[in-house]
């Protein structure tokens, strides 16, 4: 959804910021990668240099020899196109008529058309089709009208409508970066002799771990030794809000792997353990469980992978805690709005904590008096901040666009939550509760085991599937949300069509597509409970010529009509997701690589979706 970064530094203390901008921008590339650009206040000449183009950051940096420039202040942008096709002219930064103002922006300015018409009437000439360019001209217009720069920026913020994170520089104040946030995330990184703004925390890690998450409606400026924030014309006291992030710079690097996605799949054993230990030593889960236990109605929402984690939660709540939970896709929240009231709890699942659809569902429920529980991976992001209780997964930064490690850590957190609710409601005995919680300590080990046991067959399967156009992934019970997640991963990174269905439902329509060699992957997500029923579904597919694969626990070995069985060891429903999901993530990753796709940057996608 576009990434922006700006750094301003005391050159005596900090030197040239250009390498820092490039490094930070590359860490933001997962947010969008159809074009990129830099605006630099050049050392010595004091000129405003803008270097931008369509394409990947590395290519642009090389083509324009960006690292050959020196600057003490600069802003940069990586784009996921909304208004205007990817092109050099539509790439950010955008400038005013005089070429003395440059702006980068993430989000959508809703009233840009009328602002543009007004500015054009006053003689401003626009270069691009973007909504962003109005910001540069509007600032120019207010300066022309004689406003002081801070007043001009304040006025600008009061006039633009929509979702935005903005960074703006101008030659009148060459070491100052103006910023504003509404809906789209923006973080300030605090340093010694420099300050920075960025769309997210990982891109700031090479610079600093002291960060401050801006809130909706806040704006202001940074200079090398100053941070100034306002909200509706009044200064904001922000020092208490500074957090020290625990993530290391290495956590945001590839650590020797060819892609982030592979690194993030492989580190699941560790981050699952860290999430487990972290949650056991805090009271987040207990506080959330007591809200749920006393609620009349429970909803869970999220988008994409986070929604799938919500489905797993609804499954455990039904089968273990005996409590109905309504899981819905966040962008569909209006359908449920009438059901939200003060007796309702809504669980908002979002690894980034910034997804606009999930945030809007949260706000709709909150407005009607519901209690909100957030499950997020990013401390101090918007969704947990606007919730009554925040449960944090400890997955570390996830840079690959496809969610991998954050899914299983969400599942782990939500499973612990369902067990705690089951205990509070008396649906499980104390001893069963503690035994189950103890067994979840093994989730990381199960993930490692699943990866190890499946590696040879995953390779073989890649050889077969890379030739196909379409496949089904089927499951029953808990296997259904796991199949949905596996199919999403395959689609996202390999661009092969993969469709998930409850196995029993497949004969009510989808089976029409099955012909000789059509691949169908079945998931056995338990210790054999579903085996007999899945066996019938395998036979139905086999009878139509399907190539059948079963991925499951030891209890699923030896089934009839199976062309390939991938045994993942011994597990039951409680630990199934950790064993089953990593091999299927790896399958998606390897298919992408085999087909020459970039799994870290799938086409048309952006990681944190902050526009509706
Ligand atoms: C899938 C994926 C997306 C996200 C979705 C929600 O691999 O990455 O479907 O899961 O955009 O994102 P968060 O969890 O940040 O709200």
Features:
alpha/beta, Rossmann fold, eight-stranded antiparallel sheet, seven-stranded antiparallel sheet, 25 strands
Describe this structure in words.
With 612 residues, this protein is α/β, with parallel strands linked by helices. It folds into three domains: 245 residues, Glutamine Phosphoribosylpyrophosphate, subunit 1, domain 1 (4-Layer Sandwich), CATH 3.60.20; 169 residues, Glucose-6-phosphate isomerase like protein, domain 1 (Rossmann fold); 144 residues, Glucose-6-phosphate isomerase like protein, domain 1 (Rossmann fold, 3-Layer(aba) Sandwich), CATH 3.40.50. Helices cover 36% and strands 23% of the residues. It is built from 18 helices and 25 strands. α8 runs antiparallel to α15, α9 crosses α13 and α10 packs antiparallel against α16. The model has no long low-confidence stretch (mean pLDDT 94). The site of fructose -6-phosphate has 16 residues, from α10 and α16. The site of fructose -6-phosphate (F6R) has 16 residues, from α10 and α16.
């Amino acid at each position: 959804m576009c990434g922006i970064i700006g750094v301003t530094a005391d050159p005596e203390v900090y030197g040239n910021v250009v390498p820092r901008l490039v490094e930070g921008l590359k860490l933001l590339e997962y947010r969008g990668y159809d074009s990129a650009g830099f605006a630099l206040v050049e050392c010595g000449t004091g000129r405003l240099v803008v270097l931008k183009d369509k394409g990947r950051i590395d290519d642009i940096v090389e083509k324009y020899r960006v690292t050959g420039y020196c600057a003490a202040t600069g802003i940069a942008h990586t784009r996921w196109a909304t208004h205007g096709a990817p092109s050099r002219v539509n790439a950010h930064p955008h400038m005013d008529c005089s070429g003395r103002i440059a702006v980068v922006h993430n989000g959508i300015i809703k009233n840009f058309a009328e602002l543009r018409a007004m500015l054009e009437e006053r003689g401003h000439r626009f270069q691009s089709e973007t909504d962003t360019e109005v910001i540069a001209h509007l600032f120019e217009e207010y300066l022309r009208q004689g406003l002081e720069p801070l007043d001009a920026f304040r006025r600008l913020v009061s006039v633009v409508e929509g979702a935005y994170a903005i960074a703006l520089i101008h030659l009148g104040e060459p070491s100052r970066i103006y910023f504003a946030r509404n809906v789209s995330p923006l973080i300030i990184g605090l340093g010694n002799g420099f300050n920075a703004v960025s769309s997210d925390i990982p891109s700031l890690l090479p610079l600093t771990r002291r960060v401050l998450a801006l809130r909706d409606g806040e704006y202001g400026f940074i200079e090398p030794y100053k941070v100034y924030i306002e909200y509706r014309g009044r200064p904001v006291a922000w020092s208490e809000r500074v957090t020290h992030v625990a993530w290391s710079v290495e956590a945001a690097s590839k650590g020797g792997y060819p892609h982030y996605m592979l690194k993030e799949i492989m580190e699941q054993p560790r981050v699952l353990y860290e999430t487990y230990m972290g949650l056991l030593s805090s009271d987040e889960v207990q506080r959330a469980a007591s809200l749920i236990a006393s609620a009349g109605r429970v909803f869970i929402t999220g988008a994409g992978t986070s929604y799938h984690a919500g489905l797993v939660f609804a499954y455990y709540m039904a089968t273990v805690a005996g409590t109905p939970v309504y899981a819905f896709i966040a962008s569909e929240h209006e359908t449920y709005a009438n059901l939200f009231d003060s007796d309702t709890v809504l669980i908002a699942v979002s690894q980034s904590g910034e997804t606009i659809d999930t945030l809007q569902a949260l706000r709709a429920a909150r407005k009607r008096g519901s209690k909100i529980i957030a499950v997020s991976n990013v401390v101090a992001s918007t969704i947990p901040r606007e919730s009554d209780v925040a449960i944090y997964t400890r997955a570390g930064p996830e840079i690959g666009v496809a969610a991998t490690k954050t899914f299983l850590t969400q599942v782990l957190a939500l499973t612990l939550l369902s067990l705690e609710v089951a205990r509070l409601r008396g649906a499980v005995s104390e001893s069963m509760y503690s035994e189950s919680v103890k067994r979840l300590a093994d989730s990381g080990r199960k993930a490692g085991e699943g990866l190890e046991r499946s590696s040879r067959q995953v390779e073989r399967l890649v050889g077969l599937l890379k030739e196909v156009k379409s496949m089904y992934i089927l499951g029953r019970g808990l296997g259904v949300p796991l199949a949905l997640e596996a199919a999403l991963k395959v689609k996202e990174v390999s661009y092969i069509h993969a469709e998930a269905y409850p196995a029993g439902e497949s004969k009510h329509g989808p089976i029409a597509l099955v012909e000789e060699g059509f691949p169908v992957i079945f998931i056995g997500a338990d210790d054999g409970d579903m085996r007999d029923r899945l066996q019938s579904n395998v036979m139905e597919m086999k009878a139509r010529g399907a190539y059948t694969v079963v991925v499951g626990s030891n209890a699923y070995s030896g089934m009839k009509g199976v062309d390939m069985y991938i045994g993942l060891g011994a597990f039951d429903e409680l630990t199934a997701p950790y064993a089953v999901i990593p091999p299927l993530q790896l399958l998606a990753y390897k298919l992408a690589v085999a087909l020459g796709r970039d799994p870290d940057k799938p086409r048309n996608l952006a990681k944190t979706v902050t526009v509706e």
